[in-house]
Amino acid sequence: MFPLHRGRIRIVGLVGAVALLLASGPSSLRAMENSECLDCHGDRDILSWSAEDRESNVTPGGPERPHRVASPFPGISLHVDAGLYEASVHADLSCTDCHADVSDLPHTARLKAVDCSGCHSGEAAVYAKSRHVVGYKRMAGIEAPRCSDCHGAHAIPKSSLSSSPVYFRNIAATCTRCHGNREVIEQGGIAIPGAARMYEKSIHNKAIVEKGLNKSASCVDCHGAHDLKDRFDPLSPIYRTNIPETCGKCHYGVYTIFRESVHGVALARGVPDAPGCTECHGEHEIRQADDPRSAVSFMAISEKTCPSCHAAEKLAARYGVQTDKVKGYRDSFHGLSQRLGDRTVANCSSCHGVHEIFTTADPRSTVNPKNLPVTCGQCHPGATENFAKGNIHAGAGGIGGTVKYWVENIYIWLIVVVIGGMVLHNGADYLRKMQALYRERQEWSHPGYERLNRSERIQHLLTLSSFFVLVVTGFALKFKWSIPFLSDATNVALRGDGHRAAAIVMVATSVYHMFYAIFTERGRDQLARMMPRWQDALDVVAMLQYYIGISDHKPKFGRYSYVEKAEYLALVWGTIVMVVTGFMLWFENETLKRIPMWGLDVATLVHYYEAILATLAIFVWHLYYVIINPDFAPMSFTWIDGKLSRHHMEHEHPLELEEIEERERHGGEGIPGTSTLLTEEK
Questions:
Q1: Where do the structural domains in the chain lie, given as residue ranges?
Q2: Which of 152, 161, 178, 233 is the most buried (most CB within 10 A)?
Q3: 3-state DSSP of 531-552
Q4: CATH annotation of 445-677
Q5: Would you place residue 72 in the very low, low, confident or very high pLDDT band (cuts 50, 70, 90)?
């Protein structure tokens, strides 16, 4: 009996110990049913609990959680949909399997963040070394995304289901919550702020959204998922030399061709400026080739994409790239036809290939001399070996290049001599005719009236000459106009220094005019008469009535009509605007010490568009009244000799003429601001 009695004692002791442990030990040893949690969290009323309700159902305390500054992720709801949870991948887990710090009810107000590494240790270890975690640690105020931010919290569907945030159609939207979030972008958490917006327009995204192609590239296909790395990390799939291989996962056929090409070999060798996939196609905003906005569209290939390297002077010096090839193409039959809108003519890729680009000496190259007949024959059936002989790009090189060089130069000199001779001939003819007309003016029976004195004529001449020099040099600066036969350095000096010299002349003339208008008796009177009056508005209405035939007579004008007043005031306003903005651009460093960069950009726009406005106003308005106007055909001489005939006074300024004649009848002295009769003694 003793052994039996001893066994009973052991059993009783074990049961007692377990009972004592359950009674006094951690309550986590007591298995909690999900139904216990769902009694509160399964009821939507939990979302509307008052503060008192919360305090009575949870105990104070728990781990402090840092505030997620600038977080784009929604907080995890207190309500748990039991149906969605049971349909999730975690349906076989209990609430306390994840929320292990819940040991009893009611639980503490703040729970620890769920640690998924207990089940997903491999993914967690990889993610801990990713850019999301490592990069965000360096940034104050921004917390790295947690597992639940991308995968969901309580309702985590399988990734193959369309309801999953990491379903292939939803990946971009999930990533965009951060990469399109303004607060995160402004805090510097996103390397390429526009990536999400650009990807949305890409052919990859459209293939997913519009066609439902699950093989089209989403964010994780290029960047990785848990193991996302910085683009400067040599192990990153978007590290520069790794990009072709990354793209090759989908575009394997293209990749096998590209890696053998001159570009692919140079990239693999580590040449820093060698183009990869993204240099030609773009990074996120990759468009279909037939899209005019694509970097590899027909026009872009020869206009922007290839020239970005092959016309770059720095790359030419570094790698021996012949930049004259781009210029030669643009001057060739093909280039000229393309610029005229021909979409069937050959561009760079038509001859050199798209991805299979090799050196000319390589037998595989489409521009190898032995292969040129076939290459040219794609557009020109029956092309022979002789068909493709010579320098393909217009420019120097070979017999053809030499012949083209001399033909071009002979024609340029022929144009200069022939057209220059015509200009000189017609200029001399015009000058002699103007001299004859001027002599006729000297023989007028009436001596005429002084309109402009010598000082005013000099001011006008300086303004006129400096204005036209500013117009020519200003637009030359904007559009890089050059004078043939002059070196680039000379053209640069003429454009820049010529523009500044003319600006100084105009500013000096404007300053002199200001002093003239303020400190001379004639200047003050001229300025007073130039000021707008109510009568000018009435004159405008009367003139419009005359133009449309309502009235048979024009209104009578005094010293200055509304036309001249408008011109003068426009000149004053335009000069002030151009001088202020011009000096801001001239002394940009000093300007930027006082205003932000956008202010200088605004000044640039104002300077440019005010120049267009002023130039058009002079040609359309002023030159009409002094040259094209039939009343002064072929040209008014007033700006030369300052005179105005009695006929023109009667026609243009009858009120002033009446004033002069009234004063003369009474023997009065001439008023400085009015036209005075030019006697023979004068």
A1: 31-47+78-111, 445-677
A2: 178
A3: CCCHHHHHHHHHHHHHHCCCCC
A4: 1.20.950.20
A5: low
